[in-house]
Design goal:
By secondary structure, the chain is mainly alpha-helical. The chain has one domain. 93% of the residues lie in helices and 0% in strands. Helix 1 runs antiparallel to helix 3 and helix 2 packs antiparallel against helix 3. The longest helix is centred in the last third of the chain and has 95 residues. The two termini are 61 Å apart.
């Protein structure tokens, strides 16, 4: 009877140990599988991150056309600036001419005043006094005539400068317009080409993502690998 009880207890103990060992192995296997799934999901996430970076990089190429157009437009801006400055140059010259004329007129007035003052000494001799006044006026009129001639000369110079400036301005504006049209034409061609390349390259980025994901899933044990 004692032997029977002993054997029964032994069988029960061994059975329990077997259950404990079995449960431990199952738990360890499930934890190991869970860890692998997490690692696979992380690797797949890297595929998408890398792929999205690739797509963003492709999208940024659109600014290349704008940058190129801006560089080409600089030449157009340069000619526009030249066109604006040619008339300014004439206006500056004309300002100088007017300043010279003011000085000449002032000089005429000054000379006349001095001469008239010197005539005062002949006041008692009417004949000499009148002759002196006449000389002062003659000299003054000659001085004014020279000033008027200079004024006419300066006006001709200014008109000539202005006419040339108008021609130059038209030339520069025409050049500016040509470079602008050229820049716009190149920009349109560049944009069309970039759009085609972008579509092609974005598709490539997406194919790379798919290839990467498939590779990781195969490595991790099939299509049902969790993301």
């Amino acid at each position: 009877m004692k032997k029977l009880i002993y054997y029964s207890f032994l069988v029960f103990t061994v059975g329990m140990l077997g259950v404990v060992v079995f449960e431990h192995n199952v738990a360890r296997a499930s934890w190991s599988s869970f860890g692998d799934a997490l690692e696979c999901a992380a690797e797949i996430e890297k595929c998408y991150t890398k792929g999205n970076e690739c797509i963003e990089k492709v999208k940024k190429t659109a600014t290349k056309c704008k940058d190129r157009r801006e560089k080409q437009m600089k030449t157009s801006y340069k000619y526009q600036e030249k066109a604006n400055k040619v008339l300014e140059s004439c206006a500056k010259k004309n300002t100088k001419y007017q300043q010279y004329l003011v000085k000449y007129r002032s000089k005429c007035e000054s000379q006349k005043t001095k001469k008239l003052e010197s005539c005062e000494r002949y006041k008692e001799n009417q004949k000499k006094y009148n002759r002196c006044i006449q000389k002062a006026n003659d000299r003054y009129n000659k001085c004014l005539e020279k000033t008027r001639q200079k004024e006419q000369k300066y006006q001709e110079k200014y008109d000539k400068c202005k006419n040339k400036a108008v021609e130059k301005k038209a030339y520069y504006l025409n050049k500016a317009e040509k470079y602008k049209d050229k820049a716009e034409e190149k920009y349109k061609k560049c944009s069309a080409l970039i759009v085609k390349r972008q579509i092609k390259n974005i598709q490539k980025c997406k194919r790379d993502i798919d290839r990467c994901v498939v590779k990781i899933r195969k490595k991790c044990g099939g299509e049902n690998t969790p993301l």
